[in-house]
Each structure stands twice: as structure tokens, then as C-alpha cells.
């Protein structure tokens, strides 16, 4: 299906070069011949004026096709972007018989910026559907789309089967926001539209809903080409795609197949709509902050059926026995045993053992007893002067960040053989997840065999312990934006084969959609103001229904002017809007200041 889309909002239109030719040779169709003839005519007739208008886009000249008059009028709004979208329409069939009819489950498309062509050359824009429909997409999505050299504007996909999303945050230099929409009206495509095998999909009018970033108001999808499903499911697969010009995205990334098709996108703004301040945008888009969260940042969101003292006794024992005090020193107890749990004096005293201070840490051998923690894959090393949180080393004999390792011998077998098992000490001062476990997290949603998407992996300190937890039958998909940290992450992953390092921006999950399957849990430690949206985008694309979400929130990175407890409450509300149902929230003192962890369950249906 090929379509024109009109997004209504208050963003500035980006300039775009006039249509030019590439040196490649294309199949020469009558539409392409007409298009290229018009290019030549404009060049000959306008001369220098054409060159002057290359970077000039008067978006007030943009208008909807006359056939779209049956859709609600965009009165009071002005266009910002027009884009050509090319993608596939996705359908599902209950059975492969004539008694079953195809059901739409979403779509996927790339959106290419055609704003200036729509403003300056509307007659040429009307030719693009038939041309782009026959073109293959560039192998590199950042390359321009021929034959008009259209730059990538964004991506179009579905959050669920009824919620189309237009993501215009494509590159670090092109952060145009995201429109989350809902269908309001539709009309059948005109008989003159390119039909494809089964007809052109409908023209649509959509309005934005809560969660939209940017002041977008509505979307028009017009000038569609092909994309309709056959009338029955006779001979069709359970999931299939139809070549189209502009398509949305299916709910599961694995459903995406085939060559996308094309369409147009235009963004407009409402004249009477003032540009809101950050405060007003937060109040209108995110809703009111629940009073209970303002008062108590450690509020539990789930009523526990079990006795709290019984359930968290092991963690409290660990914290009070000194792990909260140690960990920074490689050989000893870290900052000094006197610090203890949460109420003991701080102090840096104690004799200097190994590392930065405190007595020497626990020793391996017969003096150490390893006990399983209530979280599968996590263990407690008891012995010496303090109990330690540990994970079973996936690569015995190797450390990742200089952590202490403990080797424990198992009882001798009948034949006299003795096996050794190595564990790595998990430092809560260097891992938010370890700090959360010691704080009493009810559920970390990961266990041996789990698939984990880890956003904000840094150099892989915590990722290595998560890899230990999920073991050789599980996988950790570690996403990190920094190339410097990414090199360390890749180095760590060469020894831990269950870690898949992905050096990419977590804001753009489409860029690594071919690497990540559906996962059981997402852990996020990205420390960005829009981290709730980042988590939501990845959850909508990769997280299973009922999957776990754990988010580390650093208050100063989100709003340094507000009190931490207020920031935490706002983030919880944002998570709710992303269909994540929070279950518990706890602060990370004494390991981190002004940090909290929020965990919850993801539900695709509201």
C-alpha cells in the first residue's frame, strides 16, 4: 500500500533538496519517464529561481488531495511534513480455507521526507506513488530513496493491532518526536488508485492519543497503492504480508517479511495551539502525580501474601552483616565494616586489608558455604566476616571487572573425584540490580534459561552477572549506545557466548529488530529524561505478554530541579502509560543516592 500521511502538530518543517537524479539505471516505466520529464522541464523553465528555492519550503501551499474531502477537514491546522512511506501490510488467517477471512494485525514502513516536493512541485508528488511502488528500498536505511533522493524521516509501525505509531526520532540529529494515533474515520481508495493484486487499502484519518511526543494532532493517510488482503484465506499462510505503499508494523517483529512499499506523510500544526512549557506538557500528557508516591518513594505497589520479615529476612541479614559497607575494595571489605546497614555510623575505619579498606574479604575453600538465594541463579556466600551476594561464574578462572572470586569444592564422589565450582562476588555499589536484590526486590523476572533485554549495558559489569544468572541456556541482549563502552562490552561477550552485544541507540529498536527475539524481561539503566518512552518502545516490540520490566531511575538525570520522590512518582505514571503495570518501587540507599528501582509487568492490552 502506498499512502500519503498528514501529521498535525507544531514542529518546524525540515528543508529538503529539489528532486535530482541518481547515476544508477532504473527500469524505465511511463510514470518514471513522465516524472523525469517534469524534472527537466522545471530546470529549463525556472533556471536560477529553482536553485534559490532548493532550501525553501512554504508548507502553507501543501493541501490534501481533492478525493480526501470526505474525511474530516484539517481546518485550523497547518502542514509540517509530507512523507512517502513504503512498507508491507500484515495479516493473519485462522485457517487456510475459503470460510476464513484475513484479519489485519499491523504493518511496517519507512517514511521518507517529501515536504518540499509537496510544497513546490505538487504535480510531481502525485507521480511518486506509481514510481516508488516499483522501487526497492536502499539496503542502508539512511541512504536516500530514489528517484527523488528523499531522506529518511522516520518509521511507521503498530504498538498493537489498533494503535499506529509514527516514530520520527530516526537519528541523533533528527529528533522530531513520535505520534501515537487512533483511527477516527476512513474512506475506500478511489478506483484510479494502483490496485496491486487485491486493491488499495483505505484512506484514513487518525488523531493522536496520550503518549505522543511533540504537538501532533492528527494523521491523514491518502493516495494509497495496493496493500489489501485477498477476500478469503484460501491457500494463505497463518501470517502473511502484502506489498504496499506505506504500511504500518505488525505487533511482533518476526512477522515482518518482504519488501516494504511507499506512501506520503505531512505534518501540520494547529494555529491556535500555543507551544506548551515543559511543565504544562508534563501535566497534560502524563497526568497527575499520585499523592501517595509524593509522600513515600519506597511505597510497595503489591500487597504481599507472605510474611515480609520471612520473605526479606535473607536480604536484611546480608545488608546488616556488612555487604552494604563493602564491595569497593578488590581484596577487602570495601569502605569499612563499621558502615554496616542503613543506620550504623559511616566511618572508613578498620584495618587495611585488601583494596581500599576494611578487613580482608571472605576466603574460599571449606570455610565458605554457598546457599541459594530465593531468586534462582543468585547465591549467598556465608563465611568470614560478612555474607556476600554471588553468581555462579559462567567462565571459571576469569574475572570481568576485578571482582573477587570464590572457589568451592563439592563433596568427593565415590570414585574420589572432587569438583570445584567458582562464584563471582556481585558488588552492589557497581550494579543497580544487585543493589535492588539486597533492597528486597520481590521478583527480578529472570532465571536460568531466560531471555533478557538489557538497555544501558555500559561496559558489561552487571550484564556479566545477568549472563551468569540465565546460564548457557539463556541469552542477554545487551544494548549500549557509547562506542567506548561498547568495545568493552564486546570484549566481555567474546568469553560469554550467551551475551549478544548491540552497540546502538535504544531509542531506535527498529535498528536492531533482526537481532532480538521476544524476551522474558527488560532491564533498563539508561539514565535519560525520556527513559520511560525508551523502555516502552522496546517493550512494545520485544517483550512478551506478561513479561517483567525493571527500570533503574536516577532522579538527577530526569529532573534535577524536582525532589527525587516526585521524579520517581512521575516515572511510575509514565510507565503506566506505556502499559507497564508497576508492582513495586524501592530506593537504592545506601548504595546509590537519589536512585530507585521500579519493577512491573507488561500488558499489551490496556
TrEMBL record:
GO MF terms, alphabetically ordered: histone H2AQ104 methyltransferase activity; RNA binding; rRNA methyltransferase activity
Which stretch is the leader sequence?
1-17
Query: Cross-referenced InterPro entries, in alphabetical order?
Result: DUF2990 (IPR021706), DUF3455 (IPR021851), Fibrillarin (IPR000692), SAM-dependent_MTases_sf (IPR029063)
Q: Which domain of life is it from?
A: Eukaryota
Ranges annotated as biased composition (Basic and acidic residues): 302-315
Xref: PANTHER family: FIBRILLARIN, RRNA 2-O-METHYLTRANSFERASE FIBRILLARIN
| Protein name in the entry | rRNA 2'-O-methyltransferase fibrillarin
Species name:
Aspergillus niger
Amino acid at each position: 500500500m502506498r499512502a500519503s500521511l498528514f501529521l498535525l502538530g507544531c514542529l518546524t518543517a525540515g528543508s529538503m533538496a529539489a528532486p535530482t537524479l541518481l547515476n544508477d539505471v532504473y527500469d524505465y516505466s511511463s510514470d518514471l519517464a513522465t516524472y523525469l520529464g517534469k524534472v527537466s522541464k522545471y530546470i529549463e523553465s525556472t533556471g536560477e529561481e529553482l536553485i534559490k528555492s532548493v532550501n525553501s519550503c512554504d508548507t502553507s501551499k501543501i493541501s490534501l488531495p481533492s478525493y480526501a474531502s470526505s474525511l474530516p477537514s484539517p481546518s485550523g491546522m497547518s502542514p509540517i511534513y509530507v512523507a512517502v512511506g513504503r512498507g508491507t501490510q500484515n495479516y493473519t488467517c485462522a485457517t487456510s480455507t475459503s470460510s476464513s477471512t484475513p484479519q489485519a494485525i499491523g504493518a511496517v514502513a519507512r517514511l521518507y521526507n517529501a515536504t518540499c516536493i509537496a510544497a513546490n512541485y505538487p504535480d510531481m508528488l502525485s507521480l511518486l506513488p506509481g514510481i516508488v511502488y516499483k522501487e526497492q528500498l536502499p539496503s542502508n536505511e539512511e541512504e536516500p530513496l530514489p528517484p527523488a533522493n528523499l531522506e529518511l524521516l522516520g518509521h511507521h509501525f503498530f504498538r498493537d493491532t489498533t494503535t499506529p505509531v509514527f516514530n520520527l526520532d530516526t537519528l541523533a540529529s533528527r529528533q522530531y518526536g513520535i505520534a501515537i494515533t487512533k483511527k477516527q474515520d476512513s474512506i475506500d481508495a478511489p478506483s484510479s488508485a494502483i490496485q496491486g493484486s487485491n486493491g488499495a487499502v483505505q484512506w484514513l484519518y487518525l488523531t493522536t492519543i496520550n503518549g505522543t511526543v511533540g504537538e501532533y494532532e492528527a494523521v491523514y493517510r491518502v493516495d494509497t497503492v495496493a496493500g489489501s488482503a485477498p477476500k478469503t484465506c484460501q491457500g494463505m499462510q497463518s501470517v502473511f504480508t502484502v506489498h504496499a505503499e506505506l504500511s504500518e508494523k505488525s505487533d511482533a517483529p518476526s512477522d515482518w517479511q518482504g519488501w516494504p512499499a511507499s506512501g506520503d506523510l505531512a505534518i501540520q500544526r494547529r494555529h491556535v495551539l500555543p507551544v506548551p512549557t515543559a511543565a504544562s506538557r508534563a501535566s497534560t500528557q502524563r497526568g497527575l502525580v499520585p499523592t501517595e508516591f509524593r509522600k513515600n518513594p519506597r511505597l510497595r505497589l503489591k500487597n504481599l501474601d507472605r510474611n515480609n520479615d520471612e520473605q526479606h529476612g535473607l536480604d536484611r541479614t546480608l545488608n546488616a552483616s556488612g555487604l552494604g559497607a563493602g564491595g569497593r575494595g578488590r581484596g577487602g571489605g570495601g569502605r569499612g565494616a563499621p558502615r554496616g546497614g542503613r543506620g550504623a555510623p559511616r566511618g572508613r575505619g578498620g584495618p587495611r586489608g585488601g583494596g581500599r579498606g576494611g578487613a580482608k574479604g571472605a576466603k574460599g575453600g571449606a570455610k565458605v558455604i554457598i546457599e541459594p538465594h530465593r531468586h534462582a541463579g543468585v547465591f549467598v556466600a556465608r563465611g568470614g566476616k560478612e555474607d556476600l551476594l554471588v553468581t555462579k561464574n559462567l567462565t571459571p578462572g576469569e574475572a570481568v571487572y576485578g571482582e573477587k572470586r570464590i572457589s568451592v569444592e563439592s563433596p568427593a564422589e565415590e570414585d574420589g573425584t572432587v569438583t570445584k565450582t567458582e562464584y563471582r562476588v556481585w558488588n552492589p555499589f557497581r550494579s543497580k540490580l544487585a543493589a535492588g536484590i539486597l533492597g528486597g526486590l520481590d521478583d527480578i523476572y529472570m532465571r536460568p534459561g531466560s531471555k533478557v533485554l538489557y538497555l544501558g549495558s555500559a561496559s558489561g559489569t552487571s550484564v556479566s552477572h545477568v549472563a551468569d544468572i540465565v546460564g548457557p541456556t539463556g541469552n542477554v541482549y545487551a544494548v549500549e549506545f557509547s562506542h567506548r563502552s561498547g568495545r568493552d562490552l564486546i570484549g566481555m561477550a567474546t568469553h560469554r557466548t550467551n551475551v549478544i552485544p548491540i552497540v546502538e541507540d535504544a531509542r531506535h529498536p527498529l535498528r536492531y529488530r533482526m537481532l532480538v527475539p521476544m524476551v522474558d524481561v527488560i532491564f533498563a539503566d539508561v539514565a535519560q529524561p525520556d527513559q520511560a518512552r525508551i523502555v516502552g518502545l522496546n517493550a512494545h516490540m520485544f517483550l512478551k505478554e506478561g513479561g517483567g520490566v525493571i527500570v533503574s531511575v536516577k532522579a538527577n538525570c530526569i529532573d534535577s530541579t524536582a525532589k527525587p520522590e516526585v521524579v520517581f512518582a512521575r516515572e511510575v505514571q509514565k510507565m503506566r502509560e506505556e502499559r507497564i503495570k508497576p508492582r513495586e518501587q524501592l530506593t537504592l540507599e545506601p548504595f546509590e543516592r537519589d536512585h530507585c528501582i521500579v519493577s512491573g509487568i507488561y500488558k499489551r492490552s490496556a
